[in-house]
Amino acid sequence: MDQSTTKAMDVVPPAMIMFVPIANGSGGAGALRHSRGKVGHSACLAATSGRRHRPSSGSHSARRLDVRMAAALEQGTHRSLTGEVDYVIVGGGAAGCVLANRLSADKNVSVLLLEAGGKGDSFKISVPLGFPYLCGSDIDWKYLSEPEEELHERRVYFPRGKMLGGSHSMSVMLYHRGEAADYEQWEAMGAEGWGPDGVLPFFKKSEHQHAKDMDSAFHSKSGPLSVSDLRRVNPLTKVFLEACEGAGMPRNEDFNNWNSRQDGMGTFQVTQREGMRESPATAYLRPVVGRRNLRVETHASVEKVLIDEGSKTAVGVSYVNKDGRKVKIQARKEVILAAGSLATPQLLMLSGIGDRHMLDEFGIPVIQHLPGVGQNLQDQPAVMLSYQSPNPYVDKNKTQTYYTERTGKDIRSILSYLFLGNGPLTSPMCEAGGFVRSDPSQRSCDLQLRFIPFVSEPDPYHSLGDFATGGEYLTNKSNRPAGFTLQSVVTRPKSRGYVALRSADFRDRPMVVPRWLEDKADLKTMVEGIKLCRKIASQSQFAQFRGDELYPGPQLSSDADLESYIRESCHTANAVVGSCRMGALDDDSAVVDPSLRVKHIKNLRVIDSSVMPTLPGGQAGAPTMMIAEKGAELVFILALSESAHLPLDAVGKMLVICS
C-alpha cells in the first residue's frame, strides 16, 4: 500500500474503507487474505443466516478505523488466477455481492466476482445525503434511453451504479418488498416456487431489522443487510404526515407486513447502519473479503460468455481487465450473470443467445434463439409537484436550516454525522410517503407518494441540477427557493419496453427503449397522482408553509394540461427490471426457468433484477437481494444433487425442505 493510500485511510471513517487495491497476479485478479472461518458445503443449505461482526452500539466506535480489516487487506497474499474456478459471477451489484458471499461460504469451491466498475469506496457513497453527487459522476453508467415517442422524443436518463454494490449504492435506500399479491402473480406467470411462501424466507434471510416491535413473521434480526428507521426526520416531513391524515389517508407503520394492506402513509425504512448507507457491498461483500476461495476483480469488462456450441454448455467468460488485457477464465460449475436489467440481456445477446433476427443483423453466431432476451423491460415513471414556501416562515422555522445543513457548509451537521451518526446527512431525501390506489377499484396500490422537504426540479435527474452531479443548483442555496416537493411514482406500470444491441461491440451501450406511457393506463395513473399530491398539499397543516405551486403550476389544471406536463417532465424512480424474465419452460417469452437457468443452455444462470416477471410495488433493491439469496440456494441444491447422484426431480423437493 502506498503512502498516499495509508494517509487517506487515517482520516476516512471505517465504513468508507471497503476494499483497497491489491497487486494483480499474472491472471489479472487480485487476491485477498483468508481472515475468517469457512463452512462446508453441507452447512450452506442451512442458509448461513448472515450473522456477521457488527460494531458496538456506540456510534463513535462504529466510525473508528478498522485497523484489523485494513491490515488483512494490506497483507493479502497475491495469488494469480489459475485460469479456472468453480463459479464465475458477472456483475458486482446487489445480486452479485449476495452471490459472492453465499457461494464462497462453501470452502470447497472457488468463486470469482467480476465487476466492470470500481471498488465503490467513495465517502459520498456512504453518506446518505451524498446521493445527489453520485448521479452523473464516474461511478454512474449514465444510461440514456432512445428518444421516447410518448415523451415528445425526450431521452430518459437512468443512473446506474458502476461500482461494487451497483445501483443500490446510489439509490435513496428505501426498503420495500411489494406485497404478497405481487409474488402470487409471479407464480401465476410460470415462476413456480416464487409465490409469497417461496420468497418470504429469503427476504428474512437477508434482513437485519433494527426497529423494535416488528412482526417476526415478516422480519428478521439475523441477516446481513441492516434495515432501520430514519435517525432524523425533518420537521416538515412530520407536517406532511399530519396533512396526509387530514386528507383521510391512513397511517402504515410497516409497509412490509403482508398481514395488512400496503395502503397508507408513514416514514420509510432505509438500508442504513448507524446512519451510514448499507449497500450490498458493505453488508455482504466486505465481511467476507478475506476468504481465500473468493476473488473479486474490479474494472473487469466482460465481452461474452464462452459457450461450447456442440453441447450448448457455458464453460467460462472472456473479459478485459483494468490493464486492457483480454483474459479467459473457465468455470467448472456455472457462469452466473448478475449484471442487471440493462447489461445482462446485452451480454446474453453478445454471447449468441437472443432473438435470431437481431443476432443475424450484427453478425453474431446464433447459439440459442431466445426471443424474450431484452423484452419485458419495466421501470417506474415518476413526476414532481413542488411548492415554494412563503416568508417569513422559511428563515426561522422548518426549511432553511435544513438547506444550509445539506450543503455541507454547517460544520455541526458534519460533526453530528461523523461522531453520532445523526443529523441531516443521514436523510434519504424522500423520508416519508406511502402507497395509494389511483382508483378504489384497483386490486393493489398503483401509486407511491414520496415527500421531499425541499424544492426539486420537475425532471431532477435529467436537469443535472438538483439531484445530478452536485451542480450549482444543489450547492448554491441562493438559487434554491425554499419549499417542498411531492413525488408521485407509478409502482406497478403496465407499459413494457426492451433492451436491444447497438452493435456487436461490448463497449457500446445497448439501446434502452422503456416505452413509458405506451399503455395509457399509466398516464391516467400519473394524472391521478398529481391530483392526490395537490390534495395533500392543500390541507390546513401546510397552510403556513405552502406558497405558490412552482411545478406543474396552478395554471395547469385540466387532465390534458397535466398529461402534457407529465410527458415533458416524468423521470425514472430507479426500478429497472424484467428484461430476462423467468417463466415456465414452455413459455417462449421466458428467458430463464424457475431455477433461474437460461433455457436450453447448460451451466448458465441469470440471477438479478432482470428475471422478475413483473415489478413488485415498491423499490427493486430488496426483491433483487431476495432473488440472489434464493438463487444461491438453487445453485447449491443442484450441486448437491449432482454430487450425490440424485435425479433432477429431487432438486425441487430439496428446495421445499430448505425453504
From TrEMBL:
Residues involved in FAD binding:
302
Entries under Gene3D superfamilies matching the protein: FAD/NAD(P)-binding domain, Glucose Oxidase, domain 3
Which cofactors are required for activity?
Answer: FAD
This protein's UniProt keywords: FAD, Flavoprotein
Whether Flavoprotein counts among this entry's keywords is yes
Name the InterPro entries for this protein: FAD/NAD-bd_sf (IPR036188), GMC_OxRdtase (IPR012132), GMC_OxRdtase_N (IPR000172), GMC_OxRtase_C (IPR007867)
One GO cellular component, as annotated = membrane
Q: Which residues form the Glucose-methanol-choline oxidoreductase N-terminal domain?
A: 340-354
- Leader sequence range is none
GO MF annotation terms: choline dehydrogenase activity; flavin adenine dinucleotide binding
Q: Which GO terms describe its biological process?
A: glycine betaine biosynthetic process from choline
Keyword Cell inner membrane annotated: no
Family statement drawn from the similarity comment of this UniProt entry: Belongs to the GMC oxidoreductase family.
Protein name, as recorded: Alcohol dehydrogenase acceptor
Q: Which organism is it from?
A: Porphyridium purpureum
